[in-house]
């Protein structure tokens, strides 16, 4: 059995792989009635999502 490769950090939401060390966070769970509705919602959120890639010394204001 081979060792699995680590995930590509550019395809994983940052909070999954490391904490952001902001003073608080909110986590929401959603249920969608269709794939189309879920897809539309995710596309609207994409500009606000942060990947797990290293952002260096420029910590994002929002995650």
Give a verbal description of the structure:
By secondary structure, this protein is mostly helical. It has 2 helices and no strands. The chain has helices spanning 14-17, 35-45. The termini are far apart. The mean pLDDT is 82.
Question: What features would you highlight for this structure?
Answer:
mainly alpha; 2 helices; 0% strand; single chain
Summarize, please.
The protein is an all-alpha fold. Helices cover 24% and strands 0% of the residues.
Overall shape = extended
Radius of gyration: 15 Å
Q: In terms of per-residue confidence, which ranges show pLDDT below 50 for 5 or more consecutive residues?
A: none
Report the count of strand segments: 0
Helix content: 10-25%
Secondary structural class: mainly alpha
Terminal-residue CA separation:
37 Å
Spell out the helices and strands N to C: HH
Largest sheet: none
Number of helices: 2
Average of pLDDT: 82
Percent range for β-strand residues = under 5%
Secondary structure: elements and pairs:
Blueprint: H1 14-17, H2 35-45
